[in-house]
Design a protein that fits this description.
disordered C terminus, five-stranded mixed sheet, Heat Shock Protein 90, alpha+beta
Length: about 290
């Protein structure tokens, strides 16, 4: 009887130890699962942080590019200003009219340099080049030819009377057009038709770019015999297009360029068609630099 009781006690003791071990194993397993989940969450956070950091670095690079560009504008303004001031030394004091013209011109140049300097301090995003090498509105035909080689079909029209604008303002308009065409090619693909319009008013310019990227994709699918996922146009899709806010680095850059000259960029998806972008500069005429003041 004593032996049976002893065996029972031993068995109970072993069972208790096993139960404790099982509980400990369960606790350790749960802790390991929780730790693994925490590590995965930390890894995901690190990945997100790295992605945000890469995006921030890219945006900072964009900011530096436009600051460099605007600084180049200021340097160009100051060189012209100094040249004009030096030439004033050769104007005789007896020629009051000539002295007055030189003084007015120098004052206008100084104001322009100050305005461009303020832009350099407040604007973000662009690339550095020699001012003399910058593209202008006179060179948009070359840009169109390049993009047509890439597969776009561009129809350009210009209405109103064009007036001279400053080098920095001209560059801002050109860059917006360049980015819009790149977006049309990137999202619409080869064969995308793009309507580009310059609408000049008494003091401003409106730039309109409309593409049929969605239709271009449908045309390619039909040609390939794979037209199975054609976008359906509904009242809901029209309503979404009216309220959707287009974002991204390219769009932010275009808006920053326009804002530097009191302009605004508005864009929207056109259901079943493509994309539309309008950049309006209502007071572009008054963004003058020394090239215009002379």
């Amino acid at each position: 009887m004593a032996e049976w009781e002893t065996s029972t006690l031993v068995f109970a003791g072993i069972s208790a130890v096993l139960l404790i071990l099982l509980v400990l194993c369960a606790v350790l397993w749960r802790r390991s699962v929780a730790e693994a989940a925490r590590v995965r969450a930390d890894a995901a956070d690190i990945t997100d942080d790295r992605a945000r950091m890469r995006l921030n670095i890219a945006e900072m690079g964009d900011h530096l590019r436009i600051v460099h560009e605007q600084q180049a504008v200021v340097a160009h303004d100051l060189v012209t200003l100094v040249s004009k001031a030096e030439s004033a030394a050769f104007v005789t004091a007896s020629d009051a009219a000539a002295l007055s013209r030189h003084s007015d011109s120098i004052i206008a140049m100084a104001r322009t340099a100050l305005t461009d300097l303020r832009r350099a301090m407040s604007v973000s995003l662009q690339g550095f080049e020699s001012v003399a090498a910058w593209p202008t509105l006179e060179t948009v035909a070359e840009l169109f030819a390049e993009r047509e080689k890439d597969g776009l079909v561009i129809d350009f029209r210009e209405t109103g009377e064009r007036f001279p604008v400053s080098a920095s303002a001209e560059l801002a308009v050109y860059r917006i057009l360049h980015e819009a065409l790149d977006n049309a090619r990137r999202h619409g693909g080869a064969g995308t038709e793009v309507d580009v319009a310059f609408v000049w008013s008494a003091d401003g310019l409106t730039l309109k770019i409309e593409d049929d990227g969605v239709r271009a994709e449908v045309r390619r699918q039909i040609a390939a015999g794979t037209a199975t996922d054609i976008e359906q146009v509904t009242i809901e899709s029209d309503q979404r297009a009216l309220v959707d806010d287009t974002t991204g680095r390219g769009m932010s850059e275009m808006r920053a360029r326009a804002a530097a000259f009191d302009g605004v960029v508005v864009s929207q998806h056109v259901p079943g068609v493509g994309f539309s972008l309008t950049a309006s500069f209502p007071t572009l005429r008054f963004a003058l630099d020394p090239k215009i003041s002379e």
